[in-house]
Specification:
By secondary structure, the protein is α/β, with parallel strands linked by helices. The chain has a single domain, classed as TIM Barrel, CATH 3.20.20. Helices cover about 35% and strands about 20% of the residues. The protein contains 6 helices and 8 strands, in the order βαβαββββαβαβαα. Strands 1-2-3-4-5-6-7-8 form an 8-stranded parallel β-barrel, surrounded by 5 helices. Strand 6, helix 3 and strand 7 form a beta-alpha-beta unit. Condenses 4-methyl-5-(beta-hydroxyethyl)thiazole monophosphate (THZ-P) and 2-methyl-4-amino-5-hydroxymethyl pyrimidine pyrophosphate (HMP-PP) to form thiamine monophosphate (TMP).
């Protein structure tokens, strides 16, 4: 089972510095490896069409749909209170803010690891080392406030499989450059951490 890793982008068309598809395409050029389609307020037909368009920007299997309906994709990411998907999907993630209580989920996001501009007052923040302890042996993505290369590197050093970002890329004047900086910092620190644990 391939679980999300590296730089994972969460969409938010309201924050995007341009059209959502343009921002995502530029972010993918910069190093985004996976995309989580949020936009849960859109009508079903619009959201499904957006899912189709986003899939065309990514390698196969790299689009994850937030919520239990995969919209024709094969991966979902569930909020803490979402039910499991009715359809059989290849990949299931779950948002967690404390110790994961999982059934079929393949990975979790733990948040917020830092205070976040997108959700001010949301927290308290779980520093990366604490998030790693909470995750235990479950593959985890760090989420929340990861807006600098230094923070991306801290998450990798703590053992995060990847970093999930929204505002740092969606708001960026240059989503490609912002993505490249975060992806490179995370990748270098993850490679260094794996060398240390050999």
């Amino acid at each position: 089972m391939v679980t999300p890793s590296g730089l994972v982008l969460l969409t938010d068309r309201r924050l995007a510095s341009g059209s959502l598809l343009t921002v995502v395409a530029r972010a993918v050029r910069g190093g985004v490896a996976w995309v989580v389609l949020r936009e849960r307020d859109l009508p079903y037909a619009e959201r499904r069409a957006l899912a189709v368009a986003l899939r065309d920007l990514l390698p196969p299997g790299r689009l994850i749909v937030a919520g239990p309906d995969p919209l024709g994709a094969d991966a979902v990411h569930l909020a803490a209170a979402d039910p499991l998907p009715a359809a059989v999907v290849a990949l299931v993630g779950r948002s967690c803010h404390d110790t994961p209580r999982l059934s079929i989920e393949n990975y979790v996001t733990l948040s917020p690891v830092y205070p976040t501009r997108s959700k001010p007052g949301y927290g308290p923040a779980l520093p990366p080392a604490r998030a790693a302890g909470i995750a235990g042996g479950v593959p985890w993505l760090a989420l929340g406030g990861i807006d600098t290369p230094a923070r991306a590197a801290e998450c990798a050093a703590a053992g995060a499989r990847g970093i999930a970002v929204m505002g740092a890329v969606m708001r960026a004047d240059d989503p490609e450059r912002a993505s490249r900086e975060l992806a490179m910092a995370f990748g270098k620190a993850r490679a260094a951490a794996s060398v240390r644990t050999r």
